[in-house]
Structure formats: structure tokens, C-alpha cells
Amino acid sequence: MLIREQLEAHEEESLSPYATLSKNSKGRDVAEQECDIRTVFQRDRDRILHCKAFRRMKDKTQVFLTPDGDHYRTRLTHTLEVSQNARTIGKALRLNEDLVEAIALGHDLGHTPFGHAGERALNDVCPGGFEHNVQSVRTVEILEKDGQGLNLTWEVRDGILNHQTSSMPATLEGKCVRLADKIAYIHHDMDDAVRAGLLTDADVPKSIGNVIGFTIAQRLDHFIHDIVTNSEGKDDVSMSAPVEQAMREMRHFMFEHVYKNPIAKGEEHKAEEMIKFLYDYYLKHIEELPGYLQDLIGNGSTKEQVVCDHISGMTDRYAISVYEEIYIPKIWHR
After folding, report:
1. Can you give the pLDDT at residue 63?
2. Is residue 25 part of a domain?
3. Is the pTM of this model over 0.85?
4. CA dist., res. 185 & res. 144, Å (int)
5. What are the DSSP E strand ranges found in the chain?
6. Rounded to the nearest 5°, which phi and psi values hold at 150?
7. Which of 225, 202, 231, 328 is nearest to 274 (CA)?
8. How many domains in the chain?
9. Residues 180, 165: contact at Cβ < 8 Å?
10. Closest-CA residue to 148 (of 37, 29, 305)
11. How many helices (H) and strands (E) does the chain have?
């Protein structure tokens, strides 16, 4: 028996009856020969971990634009924290941890430079709109490997697409990631806000603290325990009603004091204008896009879409560099 087959048999014996078994995957768009060692979800995780879009997240904004400090979160560290939270929940519920990890590591691959400011800018100017979860799926299906894509399984792509509040994944593993994403950014964005001097733990209303805790660590621990306790033995992954309500109130608190804070967000309008300038520029200079993106035009993709593909793949640093190269006059010298 191959090692992969042994792993598949172990999943069937040990995982919850509600878990997604690797051998029962709906498969890939393009059929491939199976690996003798790894299950399909292990292979997906590895492909995401080694792709260029994953590495670029280290230089993409989470909340604070290009922060002057080594300890603020980036899109990559956010992704790693989501993965750890989701794996903790998934393991406790005896779900497929490899599928959980693959979805978590891939959920933000299509995010723009400058975080949600960049996303808003592209959504404003692109006729078809722009959503980072949709772009993350496009990244793994089409854009990675110079237009070949990663050919991931249906379950991983479903989890990536549906990790936002407005949608629901088809698997419990995807639901783990969906909740882990929310508790991760509430946790680490508060931590970064405290580091930046915008908030203290004492600023969190007592009505919230009485339910989920009065410190950053207490809240993260409470969220995870509540999800596990509330979901154990069920064909669902969810929070209890009081904790879910407290999470909504905490999220609202974060919007009012961090995500809309003029000190933290005062430069975002500049980032948005920069992204819009780059969009207009590349629409007029399609020939400057990478060849594989140009090849997509007329082959199922519009000019506007491939310009979004190019810009959303940029890091903060690279977007600034390109903008300066195009729009900032150079000092003349002999």
C-alpha cells in the first residue's frame, strides 16, 4: 500500500464523520496522476506555500500602511495566524487539517497592495468590480506559474472563495478558516493598535470584555474555545450566539477606533489614488504588462481584468516604485 493510501485510510479511521476525506475530493479541473506520498490536500498546501503570490504577501499591508517597525503584521503574518487558529480548531474537531491549512494559506493570495485601500481603489475603477477573495481564486486557477495556475482541488478553491462574511464554504474545514480569519484580524489588529499607541485593553467596552475577555490573549483563547465547544459533534462550525454578538461588537469597536482612525488611516487616500493612477496608466499601455497577461486578453479576460491582475499582484514597495518611475520626475544629471 502506498504511503498516500495509508494516510487516506488513517483519515477515514480517525477523522470526524463530518470531515472532508482526501480520497473523496471532487478533484482538479485538470486530472493529474496521484502522488505516492501526499494526499491531494497536502499537495495543494505545498503548491500554495511555494508559489510567488504567497511570498509577495510579506510586503503587503494588513492594517498599517508600510509601517515603520518590524513587529506590525503584514498580509503574510496575518495569513500564518489565520492558519494556526484554523488548524487548532480543525484538529480539536477532528477535521481534515491539511485541507484547513491549504485554504488558510491561500485565502488572501489575491489581495492588493495597501490592503483594503487598494481593494477599494480597484473596485471603484474596474467595470467588473474587484474582490480579493475572487482574485485569490483567479490567482490559483489562472495567474500563478505565468498563466498555468496551480490546478488546486475544488474544496480548496471553494474555501478560498467563500472565506468572507457574506458567503459560506461547502466544507467544515472552510468554515474553520472563515471564522479563524475574523478572530485573527480582530486579535492582531488590536495588538498592533496597542503597539501603535492608538488603544489600550482598557478602552474595550466592559460589555464586550464580560463576554470574551479583557485582554488580547483572553479574547483569542475564548473565541477558539467557544467555537470548538459549540461545534463539537455537529455538522457545522460556528460560535455560540453570545460570543458571535460580542465579536460583532468588537469588530464595530475596531472599525470606529482603528479602521477609520485618521491617525492610522490618514495616508490611505494617497494609496488609493496611486492605485487608480496605475490602473489608468496600464490601460493605456497594455504592451507593458507581462506577456502571459497580455495573452489572456481576448482569451476569456478583458483588458481591465488583466490590469487588475497585474496591480493586485504588486507589493506595497513595488507599487510605489512603479508609480515613482512613471510619474515622478528624475533629477537631471550628467
Report:
1. 84
2. no
3. yes
4. 26
5. none
6. -100, -10
7. 328
8. 1
9. no
10. 29
11. 18, 0
